[in-house]
Amino acid sequence: MQWKTADYTGWGRALRARGTLARPERVPALADALTARGPAIGNRRSYGDAALNSGGAAVEMTRMDRLLSFDPDTGGLEVEAGATLGEILRLFAPRGWMPAVLPGTGFATVGGAIANDVHGKNHHNAGSFGQHVQAVTLMTDSGPREVTPERDPALFRATMGGLGQTGAILSARLQLRPTPGQRMRVVETRIPHFDAFIAALDASEAEFAVGWVDATAKRKRLGRGILEEGTLAEGGRPGPARRAKSIPFDAPGLLLSAPVVKLFNRWYRWRVPDTGRKRTRPLEEFFFPLDALHDWNRLYGKRGFHQFQCIVPKDAAPALKEILAAIAKSGVASPLAVLKRMGPGRAGHLSFPMEGYTLAVDVPAQRRKLPALHARLQDMVRDAGGRLYLAKDGLAGPETVAAMYPELDAWRAEIAKADPDGQMTTDLVRRLHLRSAA
To answer: Residue ranges of the domains in the chain?
Structure first.
C-alpha cells in the first residue's frame, strides 16, 4: 500500500486540503495505515471540511467495500465501511430488501452514513440511519472491536453521528427493510407558498416526502415549490438502467447568476401542472436524483459552493419562514433548495435531526455577501432552538454550534477515552473546536 500526497476537497469544493492519503484494501493494510495517525474518510460526500485533514494524513476507506454476510430471512447485512448505499440498494432491492434510510446520494459510504447519522425522505417515520445499525466494528490499536448499543451504549452513541472521532469504522451490521419491488409511485403537487408547504408536509401520509423550494421567490410566493410523495410499489425496475453523464469542466459563474436561477426555477416549477402529476420511477431515481449527473458540483464553478442546512423545532416554523425570506432577499441561492418534515429520531450525541422542519439551500462560494448572510442565518437558527447540519457546514463558528448541540460535553467525554491523542481530528473538528471548549 502506498501513500500519495494529494489536494482533495469535500463535495462542495469550497474548502480544500493538501495531505497524504492511503487506500487500504484489507484489514492488515488498514492497521498499518492507521499508524500514520490520521482520520478515516469515505467518498467525501460531506459538503464542507468534515472529511479533510489539512497538512496531515487520512485513510480513504472506499476500497474496503465487501459484503461480509447477509441473512435473507431477516434482512441483516454485515458490510465493510467503504460500501456505498447505492450499491447496496442495487444489489438487494431485487431480492426484496433495501437500506431503511437513504440520503440524497447513493455515493455515500456506510461509514460516512454512520459518521454523519444521515437522514432521508422518510425520517418522519423511520428516523436516522444510525437507528438501523445493529453493531459497528471500530479499528483500534489492539485490533477490531465490535460496539453495540446494548453492550457499549455511550460509545455507540458517540460513534453514530460522531464524525469518525471514535476511530476508523471497519464494518457495520445493518438491519435492512423489506421492499415489495424496485419501483416508487410518486405524486407531485405544486405548492403556492411556504405556509401551504408546511401544511402539506404535516398532512402527508406518504412514507417518503420531500419538497423542492424556489428559494428566489418572495412575498406572497415565498416558499412556493413542488411536494413529492412516494410509496414503494411492486414490480421490477421500470425501464432500462440510466447511464450517468458527467460534467467535463467547471461551469462559468454566469450559469448561476440570479436571472438564470430565477428562470430555471420558474421552468422547474411549471413542469408540474396545476392538477399535479403521478408517475412511477425506479428507486434510485427517486432517492438519488442528482446521481445521474456525475460531478454535478462542477456546475458551481472552480470555487465551489456551500450548503446551508438547518432544522428548527416544529413550533418554530415561522422562524424558518423568516430564514427562507432572508435567503430569498439576498439573491444568492441556487436552484437546489429542499424542505422536509423531520421526526424525533436520532442515534447520537451530535446527530442532526429533531422533530421539526429542515431547509437546505446551495449557495455558490463566490457570492461576496455569503459570509455575512451565513452569520445572520446561523444566529436565527440558534435563536429558534434549531441547529446546523455538520455534514453540510463549512462556515459556522464554534460558539454558535456548541449552543446548538446540548449533548456536546457527553460526546467529548467519550471521544477523550476513544481517541485521547486526537489522532482522528479533522479540519471541521478543529474549526468548530468540537473536542474542547473554544
So the answer is: 67-179, 183-402
What's the CATH fold of domain 67-179?
3.30.465
End-to-end CA distance of the chain: 38
**How many angstroms separate the CA atoms of 334 and 375, rounded?**
19
Q: Is 162 exposed, middle or buried (0-12, 13-18, 19+ CB in 10 A)?
A: buried
How many whole angstroms separate alpha carbon 391 and alpha carbon 115?
A: 9
Instruction: Give the tens place of pLDDT for each residue, 59-101.
Output: 999 999 999 999 999 999 999 999 999 999 999 999 999 999 9
Which amino acid is located at 311 in the chain?
I
Name the architecture of domain 183-402: 3-Layer(aba) Sandwich (3.40)
CA distance linking residue 379 with residue 396, whole number of Å: 10
- Give pLDDT tens digits for 18-53: 999 999 999 999 988 888 779 999 999 999 999 999
Instruction: Residue 183: name the closest of 279, 313, 102 by CA.
Output: 279
Give the SS3 label for residue 56.
Answer: coil
Spatial CA neighbour of 341 closest among 323, 356, 319: 356
Q: What residue type is 230 in one-letter code?
A: G
CA–CA separation, 154 and 158 (whole Å): 6
Identity of residue 370: L
CA 165 to mean position of chain CA atoms? 17
- The Cα 46–Cα 393 span in angstroms is 9
Angle between helices 194-203 and 317-330 (to 10 degrees): 140
